[in-house]
Design brief:
It is built from six helices and 13 strands. The chain is of the alpha+beta class. The termini are far apart.
């Protein structure tokens, strides 16, 4: 490991801010970059290059709730092997019959009980797999789940979404669907994902409107890393670049700490995106 790798690894370790209180929940969002190989792809982008680094990142992190984006079915064995048998996954591909790229939620089944879940197309036909709408060239989906924390007894909603990078209308309508879901379920909620939108964007203003949700990064008691842009594109992370990967929470969830994870493993970046971690208190002991 190089000196720069060691520095990033230390920052990644600090993502957990030292020992985590047993009543706290570790959540993580990570766009692992569509896992493909091809002679025209740059070496840094190839799954054959990055797969071991993805595995190492997940083994080192092991969050209670993990929201992934841009996942193809052949990448899931790597993900499951890294996390271990205690973890379960929910969600299918975004295409017809559940094929293609997905945004699954994974969770530690020894800590959390799954009460309900659903995958929806972000379109006017949410129940039709593969449906497109609102100006998107590809289908877009969200996956939500209700969990009960076996340790604290608290229940909460987790939502994983990957919003469209091209259509502002799609992002607006998708945000409206997420907000409606939170209001309908009436639970403490965590929204995770790649929103393809920065802190000053109309998308984020719409998401946070009226205080329904808050940005976990700015609300955190502790921020364990610099505010790096999360689409580093395999380069050294930069302060001042946009955060487009998000953890948002409803009021009443205590954000203990957050971090943007710039670890490299064997000199390899796991993805062109950086993972984002949050340590949260949802009910339980004060």
């Amino acid at each position: 490991m190089t000196a720069s790798d060691s520095s990033a690894s230390a920052a990644g370790t600090a993502a957990l801010s030292g020992p985590v209180d047993p009543d706290d929940i570790h959540v993580m969002t990570f766009n692992l970059r569509r896992p493909t190989d091809g002679i025209l792809q740059r070496r840094a982008d190839r799954w054959s290059t990055r797969g071991p680094a993805v595995s190492a990142l997940l083994r080192a992190s092991r969050p209670s709730v993990l929201a992934l984006q841009e996942v193809l079915p052949h990448a899931m064995p790597t993900v499951r092997d890294a996390l271990g048998d205690a973890y379960r996954s929910i969600g299918r591909g975004r295409g017809p019959e559940g094929r293609g790229e997905g945004t699954p939620l994974l969770f530690d089944g020894t800590r959390l009980t799954l009460r309900a879940w659903r995958q929806e197309a972000l379109s006017d036909e949410p129940d039709r797999a593969g449906s497109r709408g609102w100006g998107t060239p590809f289908p877009r989906i969200l996956v939500w789940a209700e969990f009960e924390d076996r340790r604290t007894g608290s229940t909460f909603l987790a939502v994983n979404a990957h919003l469209d990078p091209l259509s502002a209308r799609s992002r607006d309508r998708s945000v409206d669907r997420i907000r409606a879901l939170i209001r309908d379920r009436r639970l403490p909620a965590i929204v995770l994902g790649d929103f393809n939108a920065g802190p000053r964007s109309a998308t984020l203003r719409r998401m946070l409107d009226g205080g329904l949700l808050a940005d976990a990064w700015t609300a955190a008691d502790t921020r364990s890393t610099p505010e790096w842009g999360t689409h580093a594109n395999y380069r050294r992370p930069r302060v001042g670049a946009r955060r487009i990967d998000w953890i948002l929470t409803t009021p009443g969830i205590d954000i203990r700490s957050t971090a943007i994870d710039a670890r490299r493993f064997g000199g390899v970046s796991p993805s062109d995106h950086l993972a984002v971690h949050g340590i949260l208190r949802i009910g339980g002991a004060a």
